[in-house]
Amino acid sequence: MSIGEVLAQARQSAGLTVDQLSARACIRATLIHAIERDDFSLCGGDFYARGHVRNLARILGLDAEALVHEFDELHGGVPLPVRAASVFQADRPIKIRERRSPNWTLAMAVALAVVVVFGVVRTMGGAGDTPTDTRPVAAPSLPTLPPPSAPPAPGAPPAPGVPAVPGAPAAPSASSAAVDPAHGAASVRRGEEVVLKVRAERSSRLSVKDAKGRRLFSGTLKAGKTAQWKAKGGMKVVFDDAGAVLLQVNGEKLGAPGRSGQSVERSYGVPEANPR
After folding, report:
1. What is the pLDDT of residue 197?
2. What is the mean pLDDT of the chain?
């Protein structure tokens, strides 16, 4: 009897259907039908066919090894074991490089050469050096200056032999605002009206009064402006910046009444009559 017939007869003797045997062996029913007909082409190869035969024989109570041995004789015998070396043999031999110890002789020779070169350079470079004097240098002595003297009081004359301090403000003169008779010498007849005309070269403050002391003007005359006042019997004017204005009295040009920055007082009127 063939292997398939033995398995079919044993299944029938056990009272099992193909479906029941399929459920126990976990093998498809179509595959069991094919094995019972000795058709092992659906098993996927001899290896799987041997496994199915062994599994079915054990479930049906048959000698599994005897059936597998019979299967091997019918289908070419048991396959020979495969050596792992033949499977994993490398195509090219792997060469492993041996580690070499460092060449200490060459390293020492290079270090010695560097030391020799450094020594030669130091020797040649130090030949031209000149010794330097490291003795401490004494600091130069500074001349002794006399103690500063107290500045003179404002307005006091300088002491004999002491030069005046440059830039020191000069003592104010008591006659800085005194009347300059030369600027009041314009020919004006007694009782004649005085006409004063002032032109400001730059802004300047001034005060104008008539002979009776009545104020005609007090304020700042801006640069480029011209002002004119009239009064009988005379006129008195105070200029804060005498050099900033130009005067004209009764048509006579008198120019600036003083220097720039000078505060002066000028009177313009009838001069005193000479006694006969």
Report:
1. 92
2. 76
Q: Measure the CA dihedral 152/153/156/159, to 10°.
A: -20
Domain presence at residue 27: yes
Asked whether residue 128 is domain-assigned, the answer is no
Give the pLDDT confidence of 15-44 residue by residue, as tens digits.
Answer: 999 999 899 889 999 998 998 888 888 888
Domain count, the chain: 2
At which of 42, 74, 106 does a domain end? 74
Most confident listed range (37-51, 71-85, 129-143): 37-51
Residue 108 forms part of a structural domain: no
Could you say which of 43, 74, 105 is where a domain stops? 74
- The neighbouring-strand residues paired with 220 are 205
Range of the domain at 192: 181-268
Inside any domain, residue 127: no
Dist CA 184 CA 178 (whole Å):
12
